[in-house]
Amino acid sequence: RSLAAMERAHRHALEELQRQHARRIKELEMEKERLLLEETQDTARGQAETQALQRELAGLSERYSQKCLELHRAEQRNAEREREVGHKERDMEQLKKENVEKQLACERYAEVHGELNGMKGRNEREIQSLKEHLRLAMAALQEGQKLGNSLDH
């Protein structure tokens, strides 16, 4: 009898342990389900955040590419301007050289003009002197002819 009572008590204890064990397994499974659901939701949020970050990264990448293109175009324009400036500087040097030549030519022209004016003045005086000599010679010739004519008569 006591063995049967002990067996019954033991069976009740075993059944109670099995119920507690089943309840604990059910609670753990529910906890597992809840944790999996949270993890899934966190993962979904993380994937959504990742997609938002990827979109933002794509936008930043596009803007970076645009800025790179703009910078490249600006560098090309700058290089072209530098070539133009170099060309203009060479032109300016050539013009300065020519200006120094034009200036020297002007000075030489002024010298030659002065010399020519001096020669012209001397030539005009010489011409006046020669004209005077010619006039005197003509006058003397006419006097001589008058004298000769008067002696002939």
From TrEMBL:
InterPro entries: Actin_Cytoskeleton_Reg (IPR052223). PANTHER family: PLECKSTRIN HOMOLOGY PH DOMAIN-CONTAINING PROTEIN, TRIO AND F-ACTIN-BINDING PROTEIN. Residues 11-38 form a coiled coil. The keyword Coiled coil applies. Residues 75-97 are annotated as: Disordered. It comes from the Eukaryota. This is Ninein. The keyword Coiled coil applies. Keywords: Coiled coil. It comes from Goodea atripinnis.
